[in-house]
Fold this sequence. Notes:
Helix content is 32%, strand content 24%. The strands form four sheets. It has a four-stranded antiparallel sheet. The protein has a three-stranded antiparallel sheet with strand order 5-10-11. Strands 1-2 form a two-stranded antiparallel sheet. Strand 3 (89-95) and strand 4 (102-108) form a beta hairpin. It has three domains: 11-90, no CATH class; 92-112 and 205-231, no CATH class; 123-202, no CATH class. By secondary structure, it is α+β, with helices and mostly antiparallel strands. It starts with 10 loop residues before the first strand and ends in an 8-residue tail after the last strand. Helix 1 packs antiparallel against helix 2 (44-58), helix 2 crosses helix 3 (71-86) and helix 5 packs across helix 6. The chain has helices at residues 29-41, 44-58, 71-86, 139-142, 152-159, 177-185, 189-198, and strands spanning 11-15, 20-24, 89-95, 102-108, 113-115, 123-125, 131-134, 160-164, 169-171, 205-213, 220-225.
Amino acid sequence: MSLPKIEVPVYKVKLNGINKLVKYRPYKVKEEKILLMALESDDRENIFNTIVDLCEECLYDDKIDIKELSLVDLEKLIVSIRARSVGEEVKTNLKCPHCEESTQVAINLEKMKEKKDDNIIDTLMVDEKYGVKLRPPSLKTVGPDAANQTDPIGMITACIDSVYDSETVWKFSDYTSEEKKEFVECLTGETLNKLNTQFMSKLPSNVLEIRYTCPKCNEKVENDLENLIDFFI
């Protein structure tokens, strides 16, 4: 007689970028071992890619291409799966802005919220003739730098969906990385600033509100923690 198969619990999370409630399961033990091995490598790109691969395994909807998800949706999925797999509480050391004392703070991942700016503008003119249609970056558009996201030119390039004038639309994905980079680098500083202030700086983000009292100076600390993927990389 064979051993019984243990049913894995199924959870749901709303991904606002695709406006869909998706089903997922926690990591299995063998999958968590793979993640722990990646964490031991201390290689950010390797860790990030391993996390993405595991999330793909845990996602039940095979119609969703995880590499097409916006980075904010992907981050929300990663954090949700981690919370259900290992536990919703994460302990991290935070520095008090008043006295700079480092304090270990427990953060509940289930209290994650998505911050949105309704004033975001996703269609902008770059000169008198041409405009760009923008969208939140995804793994597919950002590429291997998704774990770092430090290059502002690269991030703007990853957010351009198409270029247009009054007669033609040029789909950005139809062009090589070099051609896309050349297009962005030929924009003026004023145009780049407009893209940053009206779109890039207003992209949605996942936020955890940090509230604690510093044990050294007794001051209350209030902070919004973003870039949640850094908990795992």
